[in-house]
Structure formats: C-alpha cells, structure tokens
Design goal:
By secondary structure, this protein is an alpha/beta fold. The protein is built from 10 helices and 17 strands.
C-alpha cells in the first residue's frame, strides 16, 4: 500500500456520519438522578437501558471532549461475541456455568445491537456476516483449531465456530493460508455512526449530553448523593457512572485501575467489487490472522479496507496525548502487513491513518462495578473488544443501578480489581508484554513454534 505518509491524519469514521453534531458544555450547577462521565459506548448504553427501563430518570452524560471521541468513534468496527477473555479463564475465576453464560450473552448482544439499529433507524452500516481468522502457518492453524475446540468443549457447535480450509468462500485468498476459523457471531459496523446515532436516541429518550465538560475529581468516596465538580459547574447526583475506558488514567483519580494501550489504523481508497473478488473477500465479514501481534480488518460499506493493529508503544505514566494517535513506523507496518497478506494491495492507496488508546485492566479482564452505598459505578477493561461488550456492560450497569435483575451472578460484577504497578515497573512490564507477541511471531516464522513464550503471553493476557 502506498501514500501512507500523505494520508489524512484523522479517523475514516469522522466522514460520512449524518448523526454527528456539536453539543454545548455544561454552563451551570445541576441536580440529576444519574451522572455518566464519558460519552462513549459504555456511558451511552448505560443511559439507554436506564431510560428504557425507567422513563423519566434524570440522566446527564458529560464528556471532556465530544460524543465518541475515544475508542468508540475510532475502533475497527467489530461488533463481536468473541470475549476479550477466554472461557477457560472465566471458568477458573467463576465456574463453568459463568463462562458459558457470558459467551452466550455476548452472542445475544451482537443480535441486540443489530436490533437497536433497525428499531431506531440508526444506519450504522451493520453487516452481520461473521468473523474469519486466517491461519498462515502450522502454528497458527494449531491455535485456531484450539480456539474452535474450546468453544465446542463449552457446548457450542459447528454453527457457532468451525475450522475452514482453502476453497471455502469464507476464507480469503491471502498468501500462504493453510486454513482458518469462522464464526457467524460478529458484525462489521461504522463505529462512529453507531455511537453518534446512539447518542441521539439517548437524547430523544430524555437524557442531556454536554460536550467539553471535564471533571475535576472523580473518586468513589462519601455517600449519596455525590457532588461532582466539573469545568462547567457542580453536578449533584444520586448515582455517578465512570465510563472513561482508555482515558481513565488521565483523570485525577484513579490512575492505576486501567492502563491505556494504543491501537492504530489505516484505511484504503474505495475498491471496486472486482478487487474484492480477486481477494476472495466477497462478503463484509471481519478478518484477522492468528499471529500473536493483533491485527484486524473489515471491508467497509463503501468498499474500503479499514485495517488496524497493535505495535505502538506504551507511554510512561499511562500518558494519553493526541500526538500518540499517529506513528509513521506503526502505520507503515500496518501497510506492510496488508501487502504481505494480499500482494495485489501494493497498488492501493492509503487515504486515512489514525489511532487511539484502549483500556486494559491489570488482569486483562473486563469489569462492571457498582457500590450501592456510595452510588458509584464503573465499567471497562475491554482490551479492544468493546463494541459488543460495552452494550452488555451498559445493560448490566443499568440493572444494578435499578436493582431489577440478579446481575450480581455475572462473573464480572464487583470482582476484585488489582491495580497496575507504579512506574517505572508499569512501563517495564507493559512494554515487555507488548514486545512479546512480535518475538513469538518471529520465532514461529523461524522454526514453527515458541511454546514457552506463548504460554507466558497467554497467562499475561487472560487466555
């Protein structure tokens, strides 16, 4: 792919979005039932479910920037039922039934997001065509077989996930492909259309949303109601929800609950159908390969390739800055990865490049928390799998706040959270963890295996 250095330095998703609009900052003190800090998927889904179950609830959503400014408006557009943590890990934490129930809930969540788009006329370009993972070596084929076997071991069948081989119409014609897996439980979406459309629906249900309103402090101390001081006034609320994901470390407190790790993306010019036919990517399923260094792609509704991956460094002190969204070396590496998979893409121009932080808890597991005494709630730690998981988190938070469902049985509710180490240990540990996948991929290319380092990475990342 060429033209990366000259590409527009902004998310592709910021264009062609009829739902995006500006909102005024908070300009006076206010009293509400629920204050939600963070106008991304988690905060807005929480507001949506609260207002659906209890119309008339006074809900205010504030954001230091704008709706969808963070990962919700710049992610890869995978609405996936593949959990950010394996079923084996959930079983170890909470039992086999919890592992199965969580995966089943995520499967249903993908359907719910699609139903929301239909019911509320939000054209998020939702295409429920599944996810394919390519295996381009015997080591990768072993991994995809193991993932399929795990799903089957927990009671899911071939219709939920299966191994596929060259010649299958769901397996694109990537170089050196020896097989892969496919699951129907994933949809591709235009993530910014989804988050901005959701914001408009939430407002139509009665919530107020304020842009450019930052909190001066956000701790879980004291009792109800809480008084939250913002740049636009003091908000008194019976319940306060922190939904700040990768930007949590930028708040005055807490600084070590979630670490921001950057993922970067590029997008191509629109391609004619003949190109996609040549690639063997004839439907809008999402795509990655089974390398350890995460990469991901989707065929957009207008025929572009939106492709992303890890590789950007962790920044000391969990720093988050706009300049970190752009890294020429990483963006060029993403272009090279596309060329390696599909050599004919060398002729295709990159038109956009961007990035942003995602949120990672110390044990790489997502969480939902609610303290009935203080009225303080939070959710996050999706490790980049938040498009679907955040809807389930928002629904869970709403049920906990309302007290309408026995959601405390879900394994991720109010589980103990370990804090990240102080610096410089945090920087050393995360940097080593980010380097490990590339080392494993290189070892696998050299001799076909890296078992010790692979087991170490799985342990670090919750698999």
């Amino acid at each position: 792919m060429f033209g990366i250095d000259e590409a527009i330095c902004a998310p592709l998703w910021a264009e062609d979005n009829p739902y995006q609009r500006e909102r005024e900052p908070l300009a006076a003190d206010a009293t509400v039932d629920v204050l939600i800090v963070g106008a991304g998927y988690t905060g807005l889904w929480t507001a949506f479910h609260l207002l659906i179950s209890n119309p008339g609830t006074r809900v205010m959503v504030i954001d230091a920037e704008t709706v969808g400014f963070g990962a919700s408006g710049r992610n890869g557009g995978w609405c996936s039922a593949i959990s950010p943590v394996s079923m084996r890990r959930i079983e170890a934490l909470a039992g086999r039934e919890s592992a199965i129930a969580f995966s089943a809930e995520l499967v249903a969540t993908v359907e719910r997001v699609g139903a929301f788009c239909r019911d509320y006329n939000v054209d998020a370009q939702f295409a429920h065509e599944g996810w394919t993972s390519l295996a381009r070596s015997q080591a990768q084929l072993h991994r995809v077989r193991s993932e399929v076997e795990e799903w089957h071991a927990y009671g899911f069948g071939e219709s939920d996930m299966r191994v596929i081989f060259p010649g299958d119409p769901l397996l694109p014609k990537a170089e050196e492909t020896v097989g892969g897996l496919h699951t129907p439980h994933c949809a591709s979406v235009h993530p910014a259309r989804l988050v901005h459309g959701l914001a408009n629906v939430v407002e139509s249900l009665g919530a107020t949303i304020h842009h450019h309103t930052a909190v001066n402090d956000l701790s879980a101390g004291g009792g109800r109601p809480q008084r939250i001081h913002t740049t636009g006034g003091t908000v008194t609320a019976d319940v306060v929800v922190r939904a700040t994901e990768g930007f949590t470390a930028s708040l005055p407190t807490p600084r070590r609950e979630i670490a921001p790790i950057y993922s970067l993306m590029i997008a191509s010019e629109p391609l004619e159908d003949a190109w996609w036919d040549e690639l063997g990517w004839t439907k809008r399923f999402t795509l990655n390969d089974a390398r350890r260094l995460v990469i991901y792609g989707q065929r957009t509704a207008d025929g572009r390739l939106a492709f992303g991956g890890r590789g950007a460094p962790y920044h000391f002190g969990s720093a988050v800055k706009p300049s970190y969204d752009l890294d020429r070396a990483v963006h060029r590496g993403l272009g090279n990865a596309v060329d390696e998979l599909f050599p004919i893409m060398r002729e295709i121009k990159v038109t956009h490049r961007w990035g942003g932080p995602l949120g990672v808890a110390r044990d790489w597991c997502p969480f939902v928390r609610f303290d009935a005494k203080t009225g303080f709630a939070s959710a996050g730690g999706y490790v980049g799998d938040g498009v679907a998981t955040s809807e389930l988190a928002g629904r869970t938070l709403a049920e906990l706040i309302d007290g309408t469902n026995a959601t405390t049985r879900r394994w991720w509710v109010n589980r103990p959270l370990r804090r990240w180490e102080p610096e410089p240990l945090r920087w050393l540990g995360i940097s080593a963890g980010l380097a490990l996948p590339e080392m494993i991929d290189e070892a696998e290319r050299f001799d076909g295996s890296a078992p010790i380092r692979g087991r170490l990475l799985d342990r670090l990342t919750g698999h």
